[in-house]
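re: ur question from yesterday

yeah so i grabbed the chain u mentioned. its 522 aa long if i counted rite. heres the sequnce exactly as i have it in my notes:
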Amino acid sequence: MKKNFRGLSVMSLIFTLLTTFLYAQTDSTEVASIYGFYSYSSSLMNASSASELTIQGNASHTATGVQLTPASSGQFGGLFINGRTFTSVNGLHVEFEYDMKSGAPFSGSYGDGLSFFLYDGSVTNPTIGSSGAGLGYAYNRAKNDFASFRKPGLSGAYLGIALDEFGNFKSKRFQGESRVNGITGVTWSQGSSHVTLRGAKGAAINTNGLGDGYTGYPVLVSRSTLSNTGTVGRILQADRSYASTTNTLASTFDLRNGSGEFRKVYLDLIPHFVTATTTDGFDIKVDIQTIQNGTPINIIDYYHYKTSVPYSENANPSVTDFNSSDAEGAATNQTLNAAVPAVLKLGFAASTGAAYQQHIIRNVKLTLPYSAVTNDDVATTCKLQPVSIPVLDNDIAYKGPISITTPPTGNKNNIDKTTFSFTKTGDTDLTLYRRKVTPQGTWSYNKNTGIVTFYPSSGFTGTATMTYTVKGRTLKDSNGNIVEPYGDTAYRSVPATITVTLKSTGCVYSVVSNKMVTQGIK
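ran it thru and got these structure tokens back, copy pasting raw so excuse formatting
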């Protein structure tokens, strides 16, 4: 929506401009975040110069995003956003778009898939995990005949989420060239197109193959996106067995979008509160939006990823990996230390084999769960005519305690209008910019009304853009404890863009003559 200053006489236009400037508030400052978290967003399109990004293997920067693998066999690529760290105390909300298309199937399935992973932010030079079924996250062990296939899992790994088109990321294997723990003995209704979570790196067990980087990474939960009947998923239990998952998808679909549009993944890590002040890991939720502007489909429904996870190391050699024997030994019971790192870093990986396809990711956003959300705004005006835009009308902030049972609610009325800011200079910039002057014109914000007004510069024609952010409100209890943290700077939204286009037809201008003021249409 917008309001144009049309049909104004010269004097009334001048009066309106002066009045608007009079009531447009000046810049101010906000308090630094007590959580030390800053939101992040990147389109990844033509992002080769972004200092926080590092690509590996066959990955490449393209105009449509980071291509992790081309559509050819035997490819492996990774992307680390290792120039940024994110505090973990308040959880994490991640969004990204992906494309899986082209290529050729093997045994009826395309492959392999892609992973998104979180790892300990104190790791400065991470080593990506194994290719193939490991999708850059899990390890791969092998006997001496295939020694070159050995690869430790992701260094400092905390959590891996796979969009596993071929379906092997979840599976236990014990064979000469590939030995890794996982789910075994299950006849799946659909074995391909699974969303699967694997846990953190484990502790070294012995020197016979199960050393540093070659244990842990257990399968936590897996769910097919292709079926709601039969055996569609498994979830790790406290007794180290895998029980059937029970959630039903709103609709089934193939993770591979073929020649269709990009799809969008939503990932939430919500702190799992044991008491009002103590937590035990995260509740993890994974949704996928298959149609642009459609309702996301819930795949993983708040899996409780605890800080201590019993699991089975079930792909062990009878004696050692360092011989030519194919004899398998007994499984051993282990307990994974999955303590949450103080800070996290993240990345992506993808691989192909005999089955292959193209894997691309783009439009990555990281915020805290229940951060304010801003959406782009569009308006039009004419030369010299200001335009007012109620930018907050399509934005939301949250209210209510953080909980997965009774989650906080989002509404535009929860936005604190005084927290609005035009484009900031960086993460640590605490200035609230309420007026910005650009060659295209002047942008002004009124903190009482929540209205942005754009005044085009004399002679300017074309399109002008400006970004902005907002946040919600903080609420404390009678003892001064924070129960709703949404006014903290850490909960500031990622920027949205305001676009104003100056049109050249259908404009109404003030015309001055020596007789009277009339309206002329040009």
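noticed a couple things. The longest strand covers residues 92-104. also The two ends are 24 Å apart (CA to CA).
anyway ttyl
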